Amino acid sequence: MDLGLFGAEDLEASLDPFLVALAKAADLCLKPYRHALRFSGEPPTTIGDCSDCVVLIEARGADGARCSERDLELEIYRSGADLHLMLSVVNDEQAPLLWHGSHAVWMQAASGERCDRPTDGAALEALCRRIRALLVDADAPTS
Fold first, then answer.
1. Other CB atoms closer than 10 Å to residue 103's CB: what's the count?
2. What is the mean pLDDT of residues 116-136?
3. What is the pLDDT of residues 133-142, one digit of tens each?
4. Residue 82 has what pLDDT?
5. pTM for this one?
6. How confident is the model at residue 78 (pLDDT cuts 50, 70, 90)?
7. Which candidate, 121, 43, 47, 120, places its Cα nearest to that of 83?
8. What is the SS3 assignment for the chain?
9. What is the structure's pLDDT at 45?
């Protein structure tokens, strides 16, 4: 989906369905929390071209109260033709990072060394798989 023809306000409105789809994926994978998403910095001009795109995933409990300790930062970028995701916990600099390219790799935040998947890691890996699927669908040519 090419969004390059839209003005700034139209561009933001046209990306809303994309953010809603990502929020639904987060709600499904990271239950019982509810999620809202917003771009950090400039939004991408196309959904399929999300190089250097950063999305903040903000969590709320079932009662609607903010749970900032559950907030995530998702970086979506390309290296060549390959799509990569980097998922990190916003308010915990020691929490491992999840790099998701062709497979999931957990890394120590301080050193970048590989580490074991944390206890809540399976849900985060599932979220990355769903996001990759949404982005691949957005990249697919329409006929």
1. 7
2. 92
3. 888 765 555 4
4. 82
5. 0.81
6. confident
7. 47
8. CECCCCCHHHHHHHHHHHHHHHHHHHHHHCCCCEEEEEECCCCCCECCCCCCEEEEEEEECCCCCECHHHCEEEEEEEECCEEEEEEEECCCCCCCEEEECCCEEEECCCCCCECCCCCCHHHHHHHHHHHHHHHHHHHCCCC
9. 63
Map tokens 């749970």 to a residue.
67
Structure confidence at residue 86 (pLDDT): 95
What is the total residue count of the chain? 143
- Can you tell me which residue has the tokens 């196309």? 46
Using CA atoms, how far residue 73 sits from 3, 56, 63, in Å, is 23, 5, 23
**3-state SS, one letter per residue, for 96-119:** CEEEECCCEEEECCCCCCECCCCC
